[in-house]
Amino acid sequence: MADELENFITLASPVIDGKAKDLQALSLKIWEKPELGYEEHFAHGILCDFFEEQGFEVTRGYTMPTAYRAVFGAENEGPTVAVLSEYDALPGVGHGCGHNLIAIAGVGAALGIKAAIEGGLNAKLIAMGTPAEEGGGGKVQMVSSGCFKDVDFSIMVHPAPFNMAFYVSQALEKAEIVYKGKAAHAAAFPWEGRNALDAAVMAYNSISLLRQQMKPTWRVHGIISEGGVKPNIIPEQTKLEFWVRTVKNKECAVLKSKVNACFEAAAKATDCTVEITWDPIPHAGVLTNSKLAYLYQKYAGQMGVVFPSREEQESIVDGSTDFGNVSMVVPGLHAQFCIDSSVPFHSHVFRAAAGTQYAHDQTIIAAKSLCFTAIEVLHDPSLLKEMKDEFLQAVKDA
């Protein structure tokens, strides 16, 4: 069995290496033409074209205009892996999160898995293009649309300032808060007004005081997006936007209730009304499957990648990603690979790093690590079962 696994990996590895220049060309085209979430028509088109050229059965506009599904081995009865790509950019900083690299890492891993299937691996491969990770919740909607119902596990990688297999992200919920009061002349008749800005400021300050009782991994951040019209008019309406994050999904509801109390108390204290609207597309925290993480770390380590200890990795709490919702319905891996240890996410310097030769070389290593991880799980029924058993328990504990 070990010899057969090694044979599949031997088939996959040179295929990815052999396509490295083509993959880099794809990446740089996407990098040079950044598109915001749900507007990634160029990236969607060239990625679908490439998959069709490589012999995949491609569905363009899969459940949404800029998503795709590229399938190979559909006739096989073995387990199914979904390899995910992202390709949306950020306003102002373009590919300041390196999604051009995520795009080709998914493609590269898929090409390697395809080679193993052609060599006899009994498995089905789905390469999935997922739009609008940056705030749009594309994967959340794809989960709701049933895109992962025929998938046994899902994997992807993300460029970063560090290497990480045991990824920790935060559950995320977003709210818009609208206070309504009564306008009045702020100098002549202020007592006739009800100050909606007072309500907004009181809510903001109450949440600031709440932080003393928040757990270290809880996060609340917000802005006053509308604060009034002119200083001599008592503000009749104000708006706030707040984001609430926790590592444990179940704790998000607890923190939401505390934050809601601050919003409601401010309305009562200022004699204003309040409307609190929570985004219907919450992001779950990522449930990293340890079986997948250890395999990824093993294969990347064989290619020279150095990782901190698992404990150190899990102490780094990242932001939020819609992959969390995927990891709640199938076992998942969202590994990270270093392209430059000095560059922070969502910055111009990260964008520059995502276009370098070094970043593309590291992406090929990440794609191969992802590919080999998938091949080993697809090849070993007992490992597949262990992965699924861990997943079921993790969902209960989330």
Automatic annotation (TrEMBL):
It comes from Pocillopora meandrina. This is Peptidase M20 domain-containing protein 2. CDD domains: M20_ACY1L2-like (cd05672). Residues 175-269 form the Peptidase M20 dimerisation domain. InterPro entries: Amidohydrolase, Bact_exopeptidase_dim_dom, Peptidase_M20, Peptidase_M20/M20A_hydrolases, Peptidase_M20_dimer, Xaa-Arg_dipeptidase. GO terms for molecular function: dipeptidase activity. It comes from the Eukaryota. Belongs to the peptidase M20A family. Pfam families: M20_dimer, Peptidase_M20. SUPFAM superfamilies: Bacterial exopeptidase dimerisation domain, Zn-dependent exopeptidases.
